[in-house]
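User: Quick sanity check before I run a bigger batch. Here is a single chain. Can you write out its predicted 3D structure?
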Amino acid sequence: MDILIWVFIAVIFTIFELVTGTFILIWFAVGSVVAAVLNYLGFDIYVQFIAFAIVSLMLILSTRRFADRITPEPTKKTTAERLIGKHGKVIRKRDDNNYIVNVNGEEWSATGENNLDVDDEVKIIGIESIKLIVKKID
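Assistant: Done. Predicted structure follows.
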């Protein structure tokens, strides 16, 4: 295998890392560089592949916890998660525990206490799948 192939592979992994920002692909690029150096030194193709795999795997395993620690939690919540704590109004009753609730001008499916009626004010206390969990405001 020619040294230029390893260099090309390293460049491709580096470009993909820059595009995705996963902090994983860069280690495959480093493994490719190590394999390119071994190719330059005249080592067998099998040694190059083994070194590529071992170096890449060791770097991934040794830096994964560090990467998880320094990567911040996403600050944006999904639309439904932002509704927790907000107030809404029951606009339609489907059955004993299922309702349609208007929150911030949007209609949502909701589940909650079985004593809710149309026009009751409710508070969103949670989310279950795509349904809001609501509680009547006293």
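The longest strand covers residues 121-128.

User: Great, the batch can go ahead then.
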